[in-house]
Amino acid sequence: MAPLSLPLRPAIVPWSMLMIGLLVLLQHMHDDANVLADPILAPELKYCHLPLNLPDGEAPFDCCAPNWDKPALDFQLNESAPSNLRVRLPAHALDADYAAKLDKAYGLMKALPSDDPRSFMQQANIHCAYCSSTYQMGNSSTPLQVHASWLFFSFHRWYVYFHERILASLLGDDSFALPFWNYDHPDGMTIPDAYMSYPNLTDVYREPSHLPPAPVMLDYYYMNESIRTADEQVAANLATIYRMVVTGATTQYSFFGQPYRRDDSPEPGYGTLETMPHNSVHGWTGDQQQVGKKDMGTLYAAGRDPVFYAHHASLDRLWEMWKSLGNEDIDDSDYLNSEFVFYNENAELVKVKVRDSLDTVKLGYVYADVENVWMNVTTGRLSDGVASLSGSERVCVMGEEMVEPCSIVLRREKEAALAAEEMLVIQGIEGVLDSPAHFEAFLNFPHASLSTMINCTEYAGRFSTLAQMILTNMTGNYLNTSVQFAIGSNVRELGLNEEEFIIVTLVPRVEDPYSPIAITSMKLQYETQGVSRDWRELRLAHRVRSEKTRHE
Ligand code: C2O
C-alpha cells in the first residue's frame, strides 16, 4: 500500500485562529501571577456549540446537553458505605433474568423523549460533547477534551455511574448494576451474548466479522486477524492486559495519562490502558465499513452502542485492579478538584469532582470477584541476549512518518534505574485522527515485525488511537500527544540491568485507510515520584542486594 503523503500539520492558519491564539496568549499573560495551579472546572452548558464539522454522510446533529438554567447541584458523596452495595457482574455470565432486566432498562431509556437528558440519545451525546470540544473549560475559553489525559478514568467512571443510576431508576430497582465486559478473561473474549440477542442491547453498526464467536482483539488493528489463530489471540489479549496494567504502568502518570489543567491544550498524553484495550476495543467493535468505524470506532458515536457502557465498566474495574496491586491514585490538587457536570436520575444537573470518584464503595458499587488470569502471565524471550544493530536496520527518524519498523538506540542511566522506575517516554506523537494509528515498542529486538507476537519479554507496550471524526479545534483533527511505558520489569527479565544502551524498535501498524504517524522524541526517564510505595521498596531492596553482591 502506498502511503499518501498527508501533511501532518495544516499549512495555512486562518486569521480566526490567530485571533484565538492572541486571546489565549493574553489570558496566559494575565494568569502569570498565579501560574501553574488550576484545575479544569465544570463546563457551562450555555457555552456549548455545535460540533465544528461532521464527517461526510453524517446527518447534522447537536450533541450539547439540554439546557439547565439554575446553578448545578453539588454531588453529595456518601461518606459511609451504603448497606446495599450494587454488584457489577461479568456480562458473559448474566443469567436470563438479569439480561432481560438489562434489556428492559435500555428499552425504557430509549423510549424517553429525545430532549430528556436521561434518554438514550442524550446519554450517547454526552460522549460526543465531552470529546469533540463542543464544551469549553468552565474557567477558560479553551476547548475541553477528556480523553488522552489524566481525566480519562474519572470522567468515564462518573459517566457510567450516572448512566447506571438512570437505568436503575427507570426500572424502579435501586440495586440494579450494569454488567462489565470481562474481555480480560478467556471466557469473556467475545461481544457478550446479552448484547447480541436482546433488541435494546444490540447495535446495527458493529463489524459483522467481529460478532461472536470471533475473539476480541485487545491489540486490534485491521491486519491482525489474518495472521493469528484463536489461541494466539487469547495469549495476545492476556499479554496486552498484563503489560498495560501490571508492568507497563507502575507510575501514576503512565497509568492515568498526563496532567491536564486549566488552559492546557487537549490530549497531553495517554495512559497505557486508554490506548489498549480501550481504544483498540472501540476500533474492533465498530463497523469497519462506516466512516470512522462507527459506532464504537469513533468518539462522537461510540455511546450509541449499549456495549460502550459495559466496555467502560470493564476499564473502570481494571482501574480498581491496578490499585489492588498496591498502586495509588494521583494526589495533585488540580487533578482532585477537576470537575464535570452530568444529569442525574431525576434529570437534575449535578456537578462532580474527580476527588469524589476515587472510591467505588462510596459511590455504592463494587465488582464481582473474577479471576485475573492476566496477572500471572509469563512471557518468553525471543532474543538470546544483548542485541546490536547490524547496520542494515532502518533507523527511526524523529518527526518523519513511520511506515515500516525502525530502531533507535537510547542511552540508559544504570544507577538511576536501580532506585527509580525506568520509563520509555515517547513524545510528540503526531498524526491525523480520521483513522486510528498504532505502533508497538520492543526492547533489544530489532527484528520485530508486523507478525511478532506480543506475549514476549521484549514487548514494552503499544500506542493506539481512536478515530475522531469531528474536528476538535480550528486547526483540524491533528494529533499531538504522548505515551509512556514502565520498562523496569522487561529490563530485568531480559538481563539488561548493566547495559548502557537499549535498542528500541517501533513497529507501526499501518491502517487501511492509511493514517500517518510520526514521533518527535523518545527517551528513557527515571521516576520515583508517583511510583507506588511497594514498588519503590522493591527497587530499593534490589539496590541493597546488588550493592552487597558487588562488595562481596
Ligand atoms: Cu470516552 Cu471509550 O471513550
UniProtKB/TrEMBL annotation:
Signal peptide range in chain numbering: 1-37
Keyword Transmembrane in record: no
The protein's required cofactors: Cu(2+)
Entry keyword annotation includes Signal: yes
Domain of life the protein comes from: Eukaryota
Location of the Tyrosinase copper-binding domain: 147-164, 305-316
InterPro entries, A to Z: Di-copper_centre_dom_sf, Polyphenol_oxidase_C, Polyphenol_oxidase_cen, Tyrosinase/Hemocyanin, Tyrosinase_Cu-bd
A Pfam family that the UniProt record links to this protein: Tyrosinase
PROSITE patterns: TYROSINASE_1 (PS00497), TYROSINASE_2 (PS00498)
Organism: Adiantum capillus-veneris (Maidenhair fern)
Protein name: Tyrosinase copper-binding domain-containing protein
Family stated for the protein in its record: Belongs to the tyrosinase family.
